[in-house]
Inverse folding.
């Protein structure tokens, strides 16, 4: 057998003006919904843009305030950390290396073994002396003795000029008397070469200052240079002369005349001059070259490293670091990167919003949901910033501890857990991505930390997906702690800290972070429920207790309404499971959907009893206002008792815009009797203000409310009659367009009808007829107390008549008759 909505003639055969009116109403509802949605949609995007801007400003605080420029001696007014890795020149070490390079440069000394052609000049002087002597000498017959020797005073000056030495009459006389003998010339050359080949310096004291490293001796004629370490080998001028004075025995090999030996020695002493001279210019050039060849020494400043602390006096080292910091990440550079970061954050938030909130349709298109998710992201972001600062301070205090080991304790998964509880697991998954990304950016972590935070968030969100009590939140936090420990071990292994103290601290931080997630979420849950009007399953279970003060008050002041609400809750609970709606929300909403009737309970049929109908003395318009007011009164009571947004919405929507048919027809009849036009009786005055049901749960409560009331009109509620009544009522509500804006499909309506039939058939089951006792007294007694389950034929007829009379009242109460 097919369901009641398979080829239903009541739906398929609706044509004419009524059908056109319904289509027009649907079109108007869509247009109205779109117009209403424009404002909230814009507000949601503004929330996302605002969050993107705030996150970007927190990542780049220097966008708003240009960093202060410090000078030497200033006092730092805040802590300044490096925003990225950069290199700073170590000027002291560079200077030290430069000075060392200069010190390593050998002093350059020019070596001229010929001492400016000294030997050649000596030979020239002796040669010219012999030639001059031969030219000016007297004839043999003129040789009369010593007094007859030629006077060679004119050559004396020239002789000493060639040798570039001071004139000496005794020396010149000794040489001329012996005719400038070649033996003397050879002896002098022997001695001079012996001294000059060893080297003579003008300032040996200065030379000896280079004893440790030696000198660079450069041969001026051969363009050859060599390092000399033995500096004592060189003579100074006095040392050379002393050496020559001690060479008398050597001269005797060449000369036998004491006068010539004396002359050779004196001339050698006079000829010897320094031939190893310090080349200052060349030395300085080489020192400059060495100084320039030294590369600057840099040290690396890591991102996050403290450059200067608040209260410190700025010294040259601080200035160098701050200069490099502002040069690479100063105000202009920050302003350049900030828009890119803002766009990136905006893209991530928008993608998360579209995938997480918008894709669920109207149930996730509330501005409240967007605001909650945005604030959750912002709070976790701020917690991550604060945790980073605390972790770095703790690590700095211990010295041996790296901040990374403490970053595992940041309770990022709290955000995913809260979003999962209030928005659902799928939404939490998408937001877990952005929570993990932002936290990783804050701590300057890598892919390993992103995976750590993301997996922890997923486990937290999954652990509370069907949360029905607060213990589930704590348990989920413990599970996050265990998972975090395993992930922390993996992260530390990647960093090579598997066998260090940091591994133990990381595991402790990770487990502590999981516990914090559960504890923080448990504490925040009531605050979020109160601030945003969310209704969690935890709160729904609390509200489902019949010991709630509001339900007790309903039972006392409006017992009929209370009984009606309990039956409606039974109907919707079973049906919600069949159509994948929230059975707990539907059940609790059914308990409270008519609480507004407590303010005027006697104006509703189920509470009147034998007190009479108060509407008989009222105008139809007034009666309709009283009936309509119970929705408004119910909303006020629900807000007063903080029942939650979802329940308030269902209270507001459970009648939709349905028509109060009985009083509308009564008003038209009264108008006809008075002779006025029935057109003056406006239909909208007798309709509930709405809105129509927006969710499956609201539509389900509307159908159960109508079906339960109509079921009271059945005289003999057989299974077939119950099925017919359910099909007729649901068709009527559907055809009136009351379900146009909720998510119920025809398949859902079919499942709802089956569930209603099953529940109502169980409620209206027949008991077994027990045989009557023979005693008439017992029979009379049983009929008198009204508690018997079996009635006489006459009583059955009376009850049937009463049922027919009450049918109109029940339908009038719902506006269906």
């Amino acid at each position: 057998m097919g369901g009641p909505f398979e080829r239903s003639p009541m739906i398929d055969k609706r044509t004419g003006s009524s059908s056109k009116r319904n289509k027009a109403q649907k079109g108007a509802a869509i247009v109205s919904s779109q117009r209403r949605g424009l404002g909230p949609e814009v507000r949601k995007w503004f929330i996302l843009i605002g969050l993107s801007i705030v996150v970007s400003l927190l990542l780049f605080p220097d966008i708003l305030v240009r960093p202060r420029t410090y000078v030497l001696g200033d006092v730092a007014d805040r802590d300044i950390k490096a925003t990225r890795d950069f290199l700073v020149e170590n000027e002291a070490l560079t200077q030290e290396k430069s000075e060392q390079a200069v010190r390593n440069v050998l002093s350059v000394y020019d070596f001229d073994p010929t001492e400016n052609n000294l030997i050649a000049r000596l030979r020239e002087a002796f040669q010219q002396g012999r030639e001059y002597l031969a030219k000016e000498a007297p004839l043999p017959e003129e040789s009369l003795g010593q007094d007859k020797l030629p006077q060679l005073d004119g050559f004396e000056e020239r002789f000493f000029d060639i040798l570039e030495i001071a004139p000496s009459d005794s020396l010149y006389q000794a040489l001329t008397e012996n005719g400038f003998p070649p033996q003397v010339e050879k002896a002098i050359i022997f001695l001079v070469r012996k001294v000059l080949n060893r080297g003579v310096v003008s300032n040996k004291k200065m030379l000896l200052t280079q004893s440790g490293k030696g000198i660079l001796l450069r041969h001026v004629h051969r363009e050859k240079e060599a390092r000399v370490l033995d500096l004592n080998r060189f003579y100074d001028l006095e040392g050379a002369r002393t050496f020559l004075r001690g060479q008398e025995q050597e001269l005797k090999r060449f000369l036998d005349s004491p006068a010539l030996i004396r002359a050779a020695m004196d001339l050698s002493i006079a000829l010897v001059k320094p031939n190893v001279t310090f080349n200052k210019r060349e030395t300085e050039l080489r020192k400059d070259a060495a100084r320039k060849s030294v590369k600057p020494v840099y040290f690396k400043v890591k991102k996050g490293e403290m450059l200067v602390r608040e209260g410190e006096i700025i010294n040259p080292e601080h200035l160098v670091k701050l200069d490099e910091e502002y040069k690479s990440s100063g105000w202009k550079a920050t302003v350049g990167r900030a828009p890119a970061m803002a766009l990136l954050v905006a893209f991530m938030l928008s993608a998360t919003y579209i995938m997480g909130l918008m894709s669920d349709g109207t149930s996730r298109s509330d501005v409240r949901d967007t605001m909650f998710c945005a604030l959750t992201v912002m709070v976790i972001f701020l917690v991550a910033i604060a945790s980073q600062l605390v972790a770095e301070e703790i690590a700095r205090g211990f010295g041996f501890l790296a901040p990374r080991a403490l970053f595992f304790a940041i309770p990022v998964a709290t955000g995913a857990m809260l979003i999962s509880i209030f928005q659902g697991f799928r939404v939490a998954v998408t937001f877990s991505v952005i929570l993990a990304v932002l936290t990783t950016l804050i701590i300057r972590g890598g892919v390993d930390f992103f995976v750590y935070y993301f997996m922890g968030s997923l486990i937290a969100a999954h652990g509370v997906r069907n949360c029905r009590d607060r213990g589930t939140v704590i348990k989920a936090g413990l599970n996050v702690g265990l998972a975090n420990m395993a992930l922390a071990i993996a992260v530390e292994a990647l960093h090579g800290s598997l066998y260090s103290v940091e591994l133990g601290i990381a595991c402790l931080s990770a487990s502590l972070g999981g516990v914090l997630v559960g504890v923080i979420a448990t504490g925040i849950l009531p605050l979020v429920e109160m601030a945003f009007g969310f209704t969690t399953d935890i709160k729904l279970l609390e509200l489902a207790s019949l010991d709630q003060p509001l339900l007790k008050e309903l039972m006392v002041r409006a017992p009929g309404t209370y009984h009606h609400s309990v039956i409606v809750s039974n109907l919707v609970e079973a049906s919600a499971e069949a159509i994948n709606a929230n059975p707990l929300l539907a059940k609790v909403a059914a308990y409270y959907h008519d609480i507004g009737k407590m303010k005027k309970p006697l104006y509703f049929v189920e509470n009147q009893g034998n007190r009479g109908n108060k509407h008989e003395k009222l105008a139809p318009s007034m009666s309709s206002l009283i009936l309509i007011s119970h929705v408004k009164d119910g909303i006020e009571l629900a807000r007063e008792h903080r029942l939650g947004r979802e329940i308030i919405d269902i209270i507001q929507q459970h009648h939709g815009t349905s028509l109060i048919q009985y009083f509308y027809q009564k008003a038209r009849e009264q108008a006809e009797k008075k002779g006025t036009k029935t057109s003056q009786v406006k239909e909208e005055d007798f309709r509930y203000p709405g809105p129509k049901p927006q969710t499956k749960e609201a539509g389900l409560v509307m159908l159960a409310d109508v079906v339960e009331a109509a079921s009271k009109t059945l005289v003999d509620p057989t299974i077939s009659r119950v099925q017919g009544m359910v099909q007729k009522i649901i068709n009527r509500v559907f055809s009136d367009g009351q379900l146009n804006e909720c998510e119920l499909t025809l398949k859902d309506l079919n499942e709802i009808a089956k569930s209603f039939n099953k529940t109502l058939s169980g409620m209206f089951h027949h008991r077994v007829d027990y045989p009557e006792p023979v005693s008439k007294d017992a029979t009379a007694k049983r009929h008198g107390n009204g508690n018997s389950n079996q009635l006489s034929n006459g009583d059955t007829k009376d009850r049937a008549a009463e049922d027919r009379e009450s049918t109109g009242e029940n339908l009038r109460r719902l506006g269906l008759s």
